[in-house]
Write a structure and sequence with these properties.
The chain is of the alpha+beta class. It folds into two domains: 3-177, no CATH class; 181-294, Cyclophilin-like (Cyclophilin), CATH 2.40.100. The chain contains four helices and 21 strands. It has helices at 38-47, 197-204, 277-282, 296-326; strands spanning 3-10, 14-18, 56-60, 65-68, 72-80, 84-85, 88-89, 95-98, 103-105, 111-119, 123-124, 153-156, 181-188, 208-210, 218-222, 238-239, 244-246, 254-256, 263-264, 268-272, 288-293. Strands 7-6-9-4-1-12-11 form a seven-stranded antiparallel β-sheet, with no helix packed on it. The protein has a seven-stranded mixed barrel with strand order 13-20-17-18-15-14-21. Strands 2-3-10-5-8 form a five-stranded antiparallel β-sheet. It is globular and about 65 Å long. The mean pLDDT is 92. This is Carboxyltransferase domain-containing protein.
Length: 327
Amino acid sequence: MVLDTFYVERAGLLTTIQDKGRYHYMKSGISVSGVMDPYAAEIANILVNNDENEAVLEISIVGPTLVALVDGVISITGADLDARLDGKAVELWKSIHIKKGQRLTFRAASSGMRAYLAIQGGFEAEFILGSYSTYLAAAIGGIQGRAIKEGDILQSREDFSSNKSHLTAFSKSIIPQYKDQYEIRVIVGPDFGCFKKESYRTFFNSVYKVSNQSNRMGLRLIGNSIELKKGKEDILSDAIMFGTIQVPASGDPIVLMADRQTTGGYPRLATAITVDLFKLAQARSNDTLRFKEVSITEAQQLYRNYQLWLRFFRGSIKQLNMLKAKK
Protein backbone atom coordinates (compact mmCIF):
# COMPACT_ATOMS: atom_id res chain seq x y z
CA MET A 1 0.00 0.00 0.00
CA VAL A 2 1.41 3.38 -1.03
CA LEU A 3 0.67 6.39 1.18
CA ASP A 4 1.26 10.11 0.74
CA THR A 5 3.65 10.74 3.62
CA PHE A 6 5.23 14.20 3.37
CA TYR A 7 4.52 17.43 1.55
CA VAL A 8 7.71 19.26 0.58
CA GLU A 9 7.22 22.83 1.73
CA ARG A 10 10.87 23.76 1.20
CA ALA A 11 13.36 21.62 -0.74
CA GLY A 12 16.71 22.42 0.89
CA LEU A 13 20.02 22.40 -0.95
CA LEU A 14 20.18 18.79 -2.20
CA THR A 15 17.83 16.11 -0.91
CA THR A 16 17.46 12.87 -2.83
CA ILE A 17 15.94 9.43 -2.35
CA GLN A 18 18.66 6.78 -2.03
CA ASP A 19 19.14 3.15 -1.05
CA LYS A 20 22.31 1.05 -1.17
CA GLY A 21 22.61 1.47 -4.91
CA ARG A 22 22.20 -0.04 -8.35
CA TYR A 23 24.53 -3.04 -8.44
CA HIS A 24 25.12 -5.59 -11.24
CA TYR A 25 24.98 -3.02 -14.05
CA MET A 26 28.48 -1.53 -13.95
CA LYS A 27 29.43 -3.72 -16.93
CA SER A 28 26.88 -1.67 -18.89
CA GLY A 29 28.37 1.63 -17.71
CA ILE A 30 25.66 2.39 -15.15
CA SER A 31 26.85 3.91 -11.89
CA VAL A 32 26.00 2.19 -8.60
CA SER A 33 25.02 5.51 -6.98
CA GLY A 34 23.20 5.02 -3.64
CA VAL A 35 23.78 6.55 -0.21
CA MET A 36 27.05 8.32 0.47
CA ASP A 37 27.14 7.22 4.13
CA PRO A 38 26.04 3.55 4.24
CA TYR A 39 26.52 3.38 8.02
CA ALA A 40 24.15 6.22 8.91
CA ALA A 41 21.58 5.04 6.37
CA GLU A 42 21.62 1.45 7.68
CA ILE A 43 21.18 2.56 11.29
CA ALA A 44 18.33 4.88 10.29
CA ASN A 45 16.50 1.94 8.71
CA ILE A 46 17.15 -0.41 11.63
CA LEU A 47 15.75 2.16 14.07
CA VAL A 48 12.37 2.08 12.28
CA ASN A 49 12.28 -1.70 11.74
CA ASN A 50 13.04 -1.47 8.03
CA ASP A 51 15.17 -3.74 5.92
CA GLU A 52 18.65 -2.17 5.84
CA ASN A 53 18.30 -1.42 2.11
CA GLU A 54 15.02 0.50 2.23
CA ALA A 55 14.99 3.87 0.51
CA VAL A 56 15.80 6.88 2.71
CA LEU A 57 16.13 10.62 2.18
CA GLU A 58 19.73 11.80 1.92
CA ILE A 59 19.83 15.44 3.06
CA SER A 60 22.94 17.48 2.23
CA ILE A 61 24.22 20.60 4.05
CA VAL A 62 20.92 22.53 4.17
CA GLY A 63 17.77 20.52 4.76
CA PRO A 64 14.14 20.74 3.65
CA THR A 65 10.90 21.52 5.43
CA LEU A 66 8.45 18.61 5.33
CA VAL A 67 4.81 18.51 6.45
CA ALA A 68 3.58 15.09 7.62
CA LEU A 69 0.50 13.84 5.76
CA VAL A 70 0.10 10.72 7.92
CA ASP A 71 1.08 9.41 11.33
CA GLY A 72 4.32 7.44 11.21
CA VAL A 73 7.64 6.45 12.73
CA ILE A 74 10.83 8.12 11.53
CA SER A 75 14.49 8.31 12.45
CA ILE A 76 17.21 10.80 11.56
CA THR A 77 20.90 9.90 11.59
CA GLY A 78 24.13 11.33 10.24
CA ALA A 79 24.97 15.03 10.21
CA ASP A 80 23.35 17.45 12.66
CA LEU A 81 21.09 19.76 10.63
CA ASP A 82 19.20 21.02 13.69
CA ALA A 83 16.10 18.93 12.94
CA ARG A 84 12.94 20.21 14.63
CA LEU A 85 9.39 18.90 14.86
CA ASP A 86 6.93 21.78 15.23
CA GLY A 87 9.84 23.87 16.49
CA LYS A 88 10.99 21.37 19.12
CA ALA A 89 14.47 19.88 18.74
CA VAL A 90 14.50 16.29 17.48
CA GLU A 91 16.94 13.82 18.97
CA LEU A 92 19.09 12.13 16.32
CA TRP A 93 19.87 8.39 16.11
CA LYS A 94 16.49 7.55 17.63
CA SER A 95 13.08 6.41 16.35
CA ILE A 96 10.39 9.08 16.68
CA HIS A 97 6.60 9.13 16.31
CA ILE A 98 5.41 11.83 13.95
CA LYS A 99 1.77 12.88 13.61
CA LYS A 100 -0.24 14.09 10.65
CA GLY A 101 0.10 17.85 10.24
CA GLN A 102 3.39 18.19 12.09
CA ARG A 103 6.17 20.17 10.39
CA LEU A 104 9.66 18.68 10.26
CA THR A 105 12.32 21.31 9.58
CA PHE A 106 16.05 21.17 8.97
CA ARG A 107 18.59 23.98 8.95
CA ALA A 108 22.24 24.14 7.89
CA ALA A 109 24.56 21.38 9.09
CA SER A 110 26.53 22.26 12.21
CA SER A 111 28.59 19.06 12.00
CA GLY A 112 28.96 16.54 9.24
CA MET A 113 27.72 16.85 5.67
CA ARG A 114 24.74 14.53 5.17
CA ALA A 115 21.77 13.43 7.27
CA TYR A 116 19.48 10.48 6.61
CA LEU A 117 15.73 10.39 7.19
CA ALA A 118 14.10 6.95 7.28
CA ILE A 119 10.39 6.26 7.61
CA GLN A 120 8.93 2.92 8.55
CA GLY A 121 8.07 1.09 5.35
CA GLY A 122 10.61 2.99 3.26
CA PHE A 123 10.10 5.78 0.74
CA GLU A 124 8.36 4.96 -2.52
CA ALA A 125 10.21 6.01 -5.69
CA GLU A 126 10.99 4.96 -9.25
CA PHE A 127 12.43 1.45 -9.10
CA ILE A 128 15.01 1.34 -11.89
CA LEU A 129 17.35 -1.63 -12.43
CA GLY A 130 16.87 -2.99 -8.93
CA SER A 131 17.19 0.26 -6.98
CA TYR A 132 15.25 3.31 -5.86
CA SER A 133 18.43 5.40 -5.80
CA THR A 134 18.50 8.76 -7.53
CA TYR A 135 21.33 9.00 -10.04
CA LEU A 136 21.32 12.66 -11.02
CA ALA A 137 23.71 12.40 -13.98
CA ALA A 138 21.44 9.93 -15.78
CA ALA A 139 18.17 11.30 -14.35
CA ILE A 140 16.95 7.90 -13.15
CA GLY A 141 15.47 6.61 -9.89
CA GLY A 142 14.07 8.60 -7.01
CA ILE A 143 11.55 11.18 -8.21
CA GLN A 144 12.06 11.51 -11.97
CA GLY A 145 15.80 11.18 -11.43
CA ARG A 146 16.10 14.52 -9.64
CA ALA A 147 16.39 16.04 -6.19
CA ILE A 148 13.14 16.74 -4.35
CA LYS A 149 11.59 20.14 -4.99
CA GLU A 150 9.00 22.39 -3.41
CA GLY A 151 5.50 21.00 -3.87
CA ASP A 152 6.53 17.34 -4.16
CA ILE A 153 4.52 14.69 -2.33
CA LEU A 154 6.78 12.01 -0.84
CA GLN A 155 5.25 8.58 -0.48
CA SER A 156 5.94 5.51 1.66
CA ARG A 157 5.01 1.86 1.32
CA GLU A 158 3.33 1.05 4.64
CA ASP A 159 -0.01 1.72 6.34
CA PHE A 160 0.75 3.20 9.77
CA SER A 161 -2.84 3.45 10.99
CA SER A 162 -2.66 0.22 13.01
CA ASN A 163 1.09 0.19 13.56
CA LYS A 164 2.22 -0.15 17.17
CA SER A 165 5.93 0.42 16.63
CA HIS A 166 8.15 0.80 19.68
CA LEU A 167 10.65 3.61 19.91
CA THR A 168 14.34 2.78 20.01
CA ALA A 169 17.42 4.91 20.65
CA PHE A 170 20.97 4.35 19.46
CA SER A 171 23.58 4.34 22.23
CA LYS A 172 25.22 7.76 22.47
CA SER A 173 28.57 6.16 23.23
CA ILE A 174 28.84 4.77 19.68
CA ILE A 175 27.35 7.64 17.69
CA PRO A 176 30.00 8.87 15.20
CA GLN A 177 31.61 12.19 15.98
CA TYR A 178 31.95 14.34 12.86
CA LYS A 179 35.01 16.56 13.07
CA ASP A 180 37.00 18.77 10.74
CA GLN A 181 39.82 16.24 10.43
CA TYR A 182 39.75 12.52 9.70
CA GLU A 183 42.17 9.62 9.41
CA ILE A 184 41.25 7.43 6.45
CA ARG A 185 42.64 3.89 6.29
CA VAL A 186 43.50 2.68 2.80
CA ILE A 187 44.83 -0.29 0.88
CA VAL A 188 47.56 0.50 -1.67
CA GLY A 189 46.15 0.48 -5.21
CA PRO A 190 47.04 -1.82 -8.11
CA ASP A 191 48.81 0.87 -10.16
CA PHE A 192 51.75 1.47 -7.80
CA GLY A 193 54.11 1.05 -10.77
CA CYS A 194 52.83 4.34 -12.19
CA PHE A 195 54.08 6.40 -9.25
CA LYS A 196 57.55 7.58 -8.31
CA LYS A 197 59.08 5.94 -5.21
CA GLU A 198 58.62 9.00 -3.04
CA SER A 199 54.97 9.40 -4.01
CA TYR A 200 53.62 7.08 -1.31
CA ARG A 201 55.82 8.69 1.33
CA THR A 202 54.40 12.05 0.28
CA PHE A 203 50.83 10.74 0.35
CA PHE A 204 50.99 9.11 3.79
CA ASN A 205 52.90 12.00 5.39
CA SER A 206 50.69 14.79 4.06
CA VAL A 207 47.49 16.46 5.18
CA TYR A 208 44.93 17.12 2.42
CA LYS A 209 42.03 19.54 2.38
CA VAL A 210 38.67 18.70 0.82
CA SER A 211 38.07 21.06 -2.11
CA ASN A 212 34.81 22.96 -2.52
CA GLN A 213 34.66 21.38 -6.00
CA SER A 214 33.75 18.02 -4.41
CA ASN A 215 30.37 16.35 -4.93
CA ARG A 216 28.64 12.95 -4.89
CA MET A 217 30.92 11.77 -7.68
CA GLY A 218 34.21 12.46 -5.92
CA LEU A 219 36.18 14.43 -3.35
CA ARG A 220 38.90 16.56 -4.87
CA LEU A 221 41.83 16.98 -2.50
CA ILE A 222 44.16 19.95 -2.10
CA GLY A 223 47.68 19.39 -0.79
CA ASN A 224 51.06 17.99 -1.76
CA SER A 225 50.97 16.74 -5.34
CA ILE A 226 51.60 13.07 -6.09
CA GLU A 227 54.27 12.55 -8.75
CA LEU A 228 53.62 10.11 -11.57
CA LYS A 229 56.31 8.47 -13.64
CA LYS A 230 56.76 9.99 -17.09
CA GLY A 231 54.38 8.40 -19.55
CA LYS A 232 52.23 6.89 -16.77
CA GLU A 233 49.75 9.75 -16.47
CA ASP A 234 47.05 7.64 -18.10
CA ILE A 235 46.28 3.93 -18.04
CA LEU A 236 43.88 1.76 -19.95
CA SER A 237 40.48 2.30 -18.38
CA ASP A 238 40.01 -0.17 -15.56
CA ALA A 239 37.62 -0.91 -12.71
CA ILE A 240 37.13 1.59 -9.91
CA MET A 241 35.05 1.46 -6.74
CA PHE A 242 33.65 3.55 -3.90
CA GLY A 243 36.75 4.91 -2.16
CA THR A 244 39.22 4.48 -5.04
CA ILE A 245 41.81 7.28 -5.00
CA GLN A 246 42.85 8.30 -8.51
CA VAL A 247 45.65 10.69 -9.43
CA PRO A 248 45.35 12.67 -12.69
CA ALA A 249 48.31 14.36 -14.39
CA SER A 250 47.92 17.40 -12.09
CA GLY A 251 48.99 15.23 -9.15
CA ASP A 252 45.96 16.22 -7.03
CA PRO A 253 44.23 13.08 -5.68
CA ILE A 254 40.51 12.44 -6.24
CA VAL A 255 38.56 10.09 -3.95
CA LEU A 256 35.73 8.50 -5.92
CA MET A 257 32.35 8.40 -4.20
CA ALA A 258 28.83 7.01 -4.72
CA ASP A 259 28.09 8.59 -8.13
CA ARG A 260 31.49 7.65 -9.59
CA GLN A 261 31.82 6.42 -13.13
CA THR A 262 32.27 2.66 -13.64
CA THR A 263 35.82 2.70 -15.04
CA GLY A 264 38.66 5.20 -14.99
CA GLY A 265 41.85 5.97 -16.88
CA TYR A 266 43.81 7.67 -14.09
CA PRO A 267 46.29 5.61 -12.04
CA ARG A 268 44.83 4.26 -8.78
CA LEU A 269 46.97 5.22 -5.80
CA ALA A 270 44.94 3.52 -3.06
CA THR A 271 41.40 2.61 -1.96
CA ALA A 272 39.71 3.66 1.27
CA ILE A 273 38.47 0.71 3.32
CA THR A 274 34.73 0.17 3.60
CA VAL A 275 34.40 0.96 7.31
CA ASP A 276 35.93 4.43 6.77
CA LEU A 277 33.68 5.47 3.87
CA PHE A 278 31.33 7.27 6.26
CA LYS A 279 34.14 9.67 7.19
CA LEU A 280 34.59 10.63 3.53
CA ALA A 281 30.83 11.02 3.10
CA GLN A 282 30.64 13.41 6.06
CA ALA A 283 33.77 15.45 5.23
CA ARG A 284 32.98 19.07 4.37
CA SER A 285 34.82 21.61 2.25
CA ASN A 286 38.15 22.53 3.92
CA ASP A 287 38.03 19.56 6.31
CA THR A 288 41.40 17.78 6.43
CA LEU A 289 42.22 14.16 5.69
CA ARG A 290 45.24 12.05 6.57
CA PHE A 291 45.74 8.58 5.10
CA LYS A 292 47.09 5.45 6.77
CA GLU A 293 48.00 2.21 5.00
CA VAL A 294 46.50 -1.05 6.25
CA SER A 295 46.70 -4.59 4.87
CA ILE A 296 43.90 -6.35 3.01
CA THR A 297 43.67 -8.81 5.92
CA GLU A 298 43.18 -6.01 8.42
CA ALA A 299 40.59 -4.30 6.20
CA GLN A 300 38.64 -7.55 5.84
CA GLN A 301 38.68 -8.17 9.59
CA LEU A 302 37.44 -4.65 10.29
CA TYR A 303 34.62 -5.19 7.79
CA ARG A 304 33.68 -8.54 9.37
CA ASN A 305 33.58 -6.91 12.80
CA TYR A 306 31.37 -4.16 11.39
CA GLN A 307 28.91 -6.65 9.89
CA LEU A 308 28.81 -8.72 13.09
CA TRP A 309 28.12 -5.59 15.11
CA LEU A 310 25.28 -4.55 12.76
CA ARG A 311 23.78 -8.03 13.00
CA PHE A 312 23.95 -7.88 16.79
CA PHE A 313 22.35 -4.42 16.90
CA ARG A 314 19.57 -5.45 14.51
CA GLY A 315 18.88 -8.58 16.55
CA SER A 316 18.83 -6.61 19.79
CA ILE A 317 16.25 -4.19 18.39
CA LYS A 318 14.00 -7.06 17.29
CA GLN A 319 14.23 -8.73 20.69
CA LEU A 320 13.50 -5.47 22.47
CA ASN A 321 10.42 -4.85 20.32
CA MET A 322 9.18 -8.39 20.97
CA LEU A 323 9.54 -7.92 24.73
CA LYS A 324 7.72 -4.58 24.61
CA ALA A 325 4.93 -6.11 22.51
CA LYS A 326 4.30 -8.76 25.22
CA LYS A 327 3.80 -6.16 27.93
